[in-house]
Design brief:
By secondary structure, the protein is an all-alpha fold. The protein contains 20 helices and no strands.
Length: 455
């Protein structure tokens, strides 16, 4: 029997190309972090130029998140159908176009449309690159690769925030979007040249010319080629992406989606409210921006450390532990003294824990969903879970308006991480085996019954 190409990827050391692909996913994820922060940097200039109030501006700030939720769900399924590579390139084109067009508008409606489009592309890209990071890694390094991909978000926020601040010293708010569009456009040929199609996807989906394309990818990665594709029944190869709601996967889908939703409420409370809270404590806006930078620096470190720890410990236990730590640190943020140095340290620690929690959830998502629904499962989880990103700043705002103190609000918002940890206790996580994928070579009991009934 010819060796299964997924075994080749899973059991062989990672080549330079595979490492490079994971590095590219970090850069791609950084676009999300930059874009979220770019609109925050650009918003004061937009408000001054157009004479709009905070209420109207808040609507614009939410448009990208809405587009991202829609794109994650809809385009994740596309990545499972047409492939990771074309889906990623298509999303990058959409993102670059949305950022460029945002510079041409003269009103809130037009700006909102292009922000939704940009978010739509980002959402689809996030679903695809989680699958890419998992499927280009060998079995031993998979959790590490997905974790490293995830730290792109705070990296993009830090680097992009610094770039945006410097651009705004000499140019207007449009320069921020030009910069984002340029970086996005540069990544399009990089993905086209250096990221082949996923061997896992080709072996599972088996489109026309799959063997030749698969062997070219294996050769580029320095691995031995195969003489035939794995024997997977046609009915299994053509399974719908709706399989995330099948009896074997629906419990995992619900659990990871709820966990992501709960934790994101805590994560975005920190990301969105730190500047305002620090200013309200009596510090200058520039100092508040510095505290936010330290929060993202902590996020980068948290993701990297978490990824390294997955090489020695189980990802589920690590994630539950860091989510509980996130609960403690966000609560501590609400009780931190009005001292800039201490605030920076506490926020860096909170960023460490909250982002490490996101990283852990991404790694779990990559294990819960098998190859044929991995992008759609990721997209669905992110898309629905990002609802927490919309609700978090709104909920905190209402609590403040109702007269609750910062310690009380922070404690309430920290419960998101606690609930996420509690939900994950229900997850029966088995190590995903996409390389051997014995379950993909033959139908499961539920699938076999369905196929038998159909025949």
């Amino acid at each position: 029997m010819t060796r299964d190409p997924r075994d080749v990827i899973a059991q062989s050391p990672m080549s330079l190309l595979q490492i490079g692909v994971v590095a590219i996913t970090i850069a791609l994820n950084a676009l999300d972090g930059f874009d979220v922060l770019s609109i925050s940097f650009a918003s004061p200039g937009i408000a001054r130029e157009w004479g709009i109030d905070r209420g109207a501006l808040g609507i614009v700030l939410s448009m990208e998140l809405i587009g991202m939720s829609i794109g994650s769900v809809l385009l994740g399924g596309i990545a499972d159908k047409i492939g990771r590579r074309p889906a990623t390139i298509g999303c990058l084109v959409v993102m670059a176009g949305g950022m460029v067009m945002a510079t041409t508008v003269h009103g809130l409606v037009d700006l909102s449309i292009w922000r939704i489009l940009t978010g739509f592309g980002i959402g689809g890209m996030l679903a695809a690159i989680n699958a890419i990071a998992a499927e280009f890694s060998n079995h031993r390094r998979r959790n590490l690769s997905v974790s490293l991909m995830s730290i792109g978000y705070p990296l993009g926020a830090v680097v992009g925030g610094i770039a945006a601040a410097r651009l705004l010293q000499t140019s207007d708010w449009r320069s921020v979007f030009y910069f984002g569009a340029g970086v996005t456009a540069v990544l399009i040929p990089i993905v086209f040249v250096f990221v082949p199609e996923s061997v896992h996807w080709l072996a599972r989906r088996q489109p026309a010319g799959a063997l030749e394309t698969l062997n070219r990818a294996l050769s580029r990665m320095g691995h031995e080629t195969v003489t035939a594709l794995p024997d997977i029944p046609t009915e299994i190869r053509r399974q719908s992406v709706a399989g995330i709601f099948s009896p074997s996967l629906v419990a995992g889908t619900i659990i990871v989606t709820l966990a992501y939703f709960f934790h994101v409420t805590t994560f975005y409370f920190i990301v969105k409210w730190i500047p305002k809270i620090v200013v309200d404590l009596g510090f200058a806006p520039s100092s508040a921006a510095g505290v936010l930078v330290w929060t993202n620096v902590g996020g980068v470190l948290g993701g990297a450390v978490f990824g390294l720890l997955t090489q020695r410990y189980g990802v589920k236990a690590l994630t539950i532990g860091i989510l509980l730590a996130s609960t403690v640190m966000v609560t501590a943020f609400g009780r931190a003294p009005a001292d800039l140095q201490r605030l920076s340290l506490v926020c860096a620690a909170a960023g460490f824990c909250t982002n490490a929690g996101i990283v852990g959830l991404y790694a779990i998502i990559a294990q819960v969903f098998p190859t044929h629904v991995r992008a759609f499962g990721t997209g669905f989880t992110i898309g629905v879970g990002r609802g927490g990103s919309v609700l978090a700043p709104i909920t905190a705002g209402f609590l403040f308006v109702a007269g609750y103190s910062l310690p009380t609000v922070a404690s309430a918002m920290a419960l998101g991480s606690f609930l996420a940890a509690a939900v994950l206790l229900l997850l029966k996580l088995e190590t995903d085996r996409p390389a051997t994928a014995s379950e993909e070579r033959r139908p499961s009991r539920a699938q076999a019954a369905t196929l038998s009934h159909a025949h």
